[in-house]
TrEMBL record:
The gene is rsfS. This is Ribosomal silencing factor RsfS. It is found in: Cytoplasm. HAMAP family: Iojap_RsfS. The lineage of its organism: Bacteria, Bacillati, Actinomycetota, Actinomycetes, Propionibacteriales. Interacts with ribosomal protein uL14 (rplN). One of its GO terms (molecular function) is ribosomal large subunit binding. One of its GO terms (biological process) is negative regulation of translation. InterPro entries: Iojap/RsfS/C7orf30, NT_sf. The keyword Cell inner membrane does not apply.
């Protein structure tokens, strides 16, 4: 089983939105083989809380325009790690320090990395 067409579409929309706000280290994992609750984890980071919030707002706006509604949202108040759950995809926007500490890439390294559109820049970290 692989990520659904809709999940891939939403991942591309979210990745472009994050890239437009200069998110760092944008990466997407197809977790559909490992998890029954979602198809894709999109992970990106920012150097400060203000930028985390800016990325979150851009992702939410673009996904809303694409017809997606969040199932749940966590961590907005602190602005250190915001999780946006859209059922088909889960977007993690993390402060750089949290990303290094929690190392989600290490946890999901057995899952295939998804190719993102050419206009998505991975940011300074890669």
């Amino acid at each position: 089983m692989t990520a659904s067409t809709r999940a891939v579409e939403l991942t591309h929309v979210a990745a472009r939105a994050a890239s437009d706000k200069i998110a760092e280290d944008i990466v997407a994992f197809d977790v559909s083989e490992q998890l029954a609750i979602t198809d894709v984890f999109l992970i990106c980071s920012a150097g400060n809380e203000r930028q985390v919030r800016s990325i979150v707002e851009a992702v939410e706006d673009r996904l809303r325009e694409a017809g997606a509604k969040p199932v749940r949202r966590e961590g907005e108040r602190q602005g250190r790690w915001v999780l946006l759950d859209y059922a088909e995809i889960v977007v993690h926007v993390m402060h750089t320090e949290e990303r290094e500490f929690y190392a989600l890439e290490r946890l999901w390294r057995d899952c295939p990395t998804m190719t993102l559109p050419a206009d998505v820049t991975p940011g300074r970290g890669r």
